[in-house]
């Protein structure tokens, strides 16, 4: 049996960086059933509405959609069930303190296979207000204009 190496992206939450300002990221393992792994190997998952909570010293990933496996039978999983995330106890305690004290949230940024094991990149994030989103868009537009002007100058155009 040949073991896979490297990192294979399954799903990415592109909207997360637009709606949230990411303060810190964590790589976590995830507890899955067999049909969930098979469905993920087909590259199917949706992280858009997902979030994580800390309950009784355990971190749970909620509202992430992994569709039922097409070849599955009565043993198929529920698509939006809560899934346990695997972190060290010190990391969980640190996350719990930050989430409770400063009103931060835990948001999944991406889901991937790393050396054959399913992983979730979890972000400690603060929600952006509408004016923050507009400022970020203005910065991106200004940076894009600067890069265009530099490119035109390099080519000898105005």
Q: How would you sum up this structure in a few lines?
A:
With 158 residues, the chain is α+β, with helices and mostly antiparallel strands.
Description:
By secondary structure, this protein is of the alpha+beta class. It folds into two domains: 7-127, Small Protein B, Chain: A (Beta Barrel), CATH 2.40.280.10; 129-158. 32% of the residues lie in helices and 33% in strands. A seven-stranded antiparallel beta sheet has the order 1-6-7-2-5-4-3. Strand 6 (105-114) and strand 7 (117-127) form a beta hairpin. The chain is globular, with a radius of gyration of 19 Å. It starts with 6 loop residues before the first strand and ends with a helix. The relative contact order is 0.23. InterPro entries: SmpB, SsrA-bd_prot, SsrA-bd_prot_CS. Residues 129-158 are annotated as: Disordered. Keywords: Cytoplasm, RNA-binding.
What's the domain count? 2
One letter per element, helices H and strands E, the order comes to EHEHEEEHEEH
Q: Shape from CA axes?
A: globular
Q: Count helical runs.
A: 4
Q: What is the CATH topology of the largest domain?
A: Small Protein B, Chain: A
Main sheet specs: 7 strands, antiparallel
Structural class, please? alpha+beta
**Which CATH class of the largest domain is shown?**
Mainly Beta
